[in-house]
Amino acid sequence: xxxxxxxxxxxxxxxxxxxxxxxxxxxxxxxxxxxxxxxxxxxxxxxxxxxxxxxxxxxxxxxxxxxxxxxxxxxxxxxxxxxxxxxxxxxxxxxxxxxxxxxxxxxxxxxxxxxxxxxxxxxxxxxxxxxxxxxxxxxxxxxxxxxxxxxxxxxxxxxxxxxxxxxxxxxxxxxxxxxxxxxxxxxxxxxxxxxxxxxxxxxxxxxxxxxxxxxxxxxxxxxxxxxxxxxxxxxxxxxxxxxxxxxxxxxxxxxxxxxxxxxxxxxxxxxxxxxxxxxxxxxxxxxxxxxxxxxxxxxxxxxxxxxxxxxxxxxxxxxxxxxxxxxxxxxxxxxxxxxxxxxxxxxxxxxxxxxxxxxxxxxxxxxxxxxxxxxxxxxxxxxxxxxxxxxxxxxxxxxxxxxx
Length: 404
Fold this sequence. Notes:
This protein is α/β, with parallel strands linked by helices. The chain has two domains: about 10-280, TIM Barrel; about 285-400, no CATH class. It is built from 16 helices and 16 strands. The strands form four sheets. Strands 4-14-13-12-11-10-6-5 form an eight-stranded parallel beta sheet. Helix 10 (about 260-270) packs antiparallel against helix 15. The radius of gyration is 21 Å and the shape is globular.
């Protein structure tokens, strides 16, 4: 095991309500209020938005992706421009995904071995090699405030042997990530870049618990939960999340990777998650899916052509404060680029408002009342998900009560 990193103690928990926590994470690029949602700027840009747009939604931190940025424009170029935040003119911290999930998604183009992964670029087919040491070095070139350890992810339908192998290899790689991070980062500073480890385990609760317990014993600054929201039913997500999070050190930030549906955010915070990222809010916005308190609507639908009021009268985003639903419906139906910008701002602000409500509710001590109120009103789009909403709520409540 790698020697402990000097404890920067960057994370402060200001309030706890049940298992939900509200706090602050201090990073070189600024302070992140938790629970926090990170908009995804995969290629150093949140699609359709500029940094001012993103700030207006309430985001404190963005996510960039090692895989994409190492291929284009290249981490060395980003480093010459002063790091990813300066390169994209973002005035806050950035977390970089190690590339593990992207390599997983390129299963037909990759080959895993004990030392690392060889894969072919989706851009030009060129071969690349990525080891744990490489992933850390690239993230340091990118200037990440939070670097992620290279891990191995599997899908929901992966064979049991593949899930076990991914769990084992992720843990064997972790010390190598730690050693390279210690070599490259000045860990003497009180506020310094951080390294998060990732627990995997597939879809076996016992293996999830063992992975989390093993991660918990390593001297990483933060604890991430990976390999979820990869095709599993909602109730399975909650079960695996609970198994993953229960063994984790309560003093370190907990990050649930790749989860962004509004109902999932409320349920995960109830179980003790502090940080999230997901492309979902902006991806569905680009196709006309906009969030409201009653669920996601298809703004392209004919019934919105003559609605002379905001999408959400309670929302303070640019789209709702300045434009009518009828106008935004027109923009989408006409294929105007402005539609994607306004829709993305609206959805990220909707998520940002949920984070603000969670933080306030935790501080007041009435988080569970607000969670119940949100889940009873918000209807997921998928009828099967809607049918399971109450079962999901019940499952997450049981998980919360069992460890209260």
